[in-house]
Amino acid sequence: MNIQTSALLLIALAIPARAADIAMEDQSQILTGAGAPASDQYFQPPQERELPDNAFGKLVQEGRAIFVDTKNRAPEYVGNGLACANCHLDQGRKANSAPLWGAYPMYPAYRKKNDKVNSYAERVQGCFQFSMNGKAPEADGPVIAALSAYSYWLSTGAPTGQELPGRAYPEVPEPEGGYDLAKGEQVYTAQCAVCHGADGEGQKAGEDYVFPPLWGADSFNWGAGMHRINTAAAFIKESMPLGKGGTLSDEDAWHVAAFMNSHERPQDPRLIDGSIEKTRDRFHANDGVNLYGEIVNGQMLGKGI
Amino acid sequence: MNVAHWSLAGLLMAVSAHALAVADPVTVYNQGGVNPAAMACVTCHGTEGEGMAAAGFPRLAGLSANHMKKQLADFASGERANPIMQPIAVALSSEEAEAVTMMLAEKPPLDVERIGRASLVQGLGQTLALRGAWDRNIPECVACHGPSGVGVGDAFPPLAGQPAQYLSSQLNAWRQGTRKNDPNDLMGHIARNLTDEEIKAVSEYFATLTETGAGK
Fold first, then answer.
1. Rounded to two decimals, what is the model's pTM?
2. B92 with B127, same domain?
3. What is the ipTM of this complex?
4. Are A90 and A242 within 8 A, CB to CB?
5. CB pairs under 8 A between A and B
């Protein structure tokens, strides 16, 4: 083998290696097609005071601490200013806020998209690569171990492989006339800017974000589930303003979700050949309602930041 | 006021381009405003704006100037009803309010340890502060007021080290509707969902977070 072919081989090896870096490219929730849940009662995770005072209890608390203070506790894997608990309210306990007890018992699970049985570790690695705009913690490393222990403990007594009520953000119907970015901006200014800042930049106390940045370089990237307007509208309707969930109309939740997601944010790490169009066709065209690769105010979104 | 103080004020005026439009904050703070009803701040809020815990008068040193200006405007309008502050806020000129709040904002805030949601909790007050009561849609206090309640921006003032009596009287004022000057009722709806026991406990918790207390 001469030097030239060796170099070509290296390049050829490098390209698929980049794609394989993404632990789980599809971040949507697993649907089993199971029937209606047997009960409307939400699953009740155990109380913190019930945690045993032993090695397991300590590991669970480490996971909880990473979950609420992710940037400080897992800095090498976090590329933005967010914490897991920003989107999974009440430390991942709250029904209708994508609680960990609704996700953990769904794994391992086969997914058609990557034609394999995915582990919970792979799902969490995806969170770090997209929502946290960082890199995947090692599947056998301490961060995944602690987060898995916390999720496992919160799921104590939950049935496995069964969709539990309250496991998602409840869907909100899109307004009949579609969403309206100008109305979204009005809602944002009136209801959101006091915490998240006039330009979505979030607010800090010292070095730490208290209110998460909603767009820009310190927010989630274009591959995160929250970049879908339908997902963001569902989250916002249920949980925003913080502590006053359910107060926005369905229409306003959509308008303001669209306004949030009509701003630039870090690039989708699945970017294909540097092409927004190719990446849109492959990953965004059939991924709910989103603005990746669309023109807004004369600018194509998806350039990254 | 002694002669040295006057010459300091004179020097400040000489170097300031806005000298004639701006009231002297030290005079306003220590002596009161031009209108005699605008009584001196120092009497209740302490020589360095540290407050007076025994009487429940809050610390002002290191608070956001915009936050304090808004409170003065709201005392004057009655959005934040308070029999002591209302006549003072009415009597202060806007220049005096501007100057004195700017001066207080530049004083050092409390330097306390940052206790956030990752910490373990003990007792009702700390549990409410760091865990909230989400079954009633009550977020963790630190979710908006920052770790240890050190305060965030113009809208979320510091709770750390404020007198327990002050904090509980504010929560009760929101509950009773005599204070209604928060953005979008963000604090009011929380206060109305708290019990007497919770108000007492959480106020006492934040009052302990001082440079010499639990927050050191």
1. 0.89
2. no
3. 0.89
4. no
5. 72
